Amino acid sequence: MKQSKIIDDGKKVINTELKGIRKLSSTINKNFDKAVKALAKVKGRVIITGVGKSGHIASKISSTMSSTGTPSQYCSPTDMSHGDLGVISKKDALVVISNSGNSNELTNLLNFAKKYSISIIGISSNSESDLIKASNISLIIPNAAEACSIGLAPTTSTTMALIIGDAICVSLMKMKK
Length: 177
What we know:
The chain is 50% helix and 13% strand. The protein is α/β, with parallel strands linked by helices.
């Protein structure tokens, strides 16, 4: 493959993701305000989770949240479904990231949170998803083209989820001074 083709491909990925990011500011609305205010009131920890690539993003957001002054922990929803739901207390809040919002791995977690009245902030591009229906506060990521050549690998969607997470962390840090 020629150098010019590789460079063009790299630029195309960046431009595709930038188009998605430009749409993202629409998610900074009253629900974003509610999410930040709710997280500022959490007496326990903010448990952040997601499946697959969303899980990697959740882990990074959790790390940023902890380093900016809000106790946070990442835990895999699969692990929680297999005995680790005890990591969550009634003083905690959940931030759940899922592009589709319908991952089977989230079912036990969402049911547990509902049963014990644990607040859920859902981040998804699917406003009709099980996650968003179960959430107390929902942040809808706009639909945008994924940057991979076949349009399936999570690229733009994970970038947008990461940016929303960073926006939450920084806003929360400023709110809590």
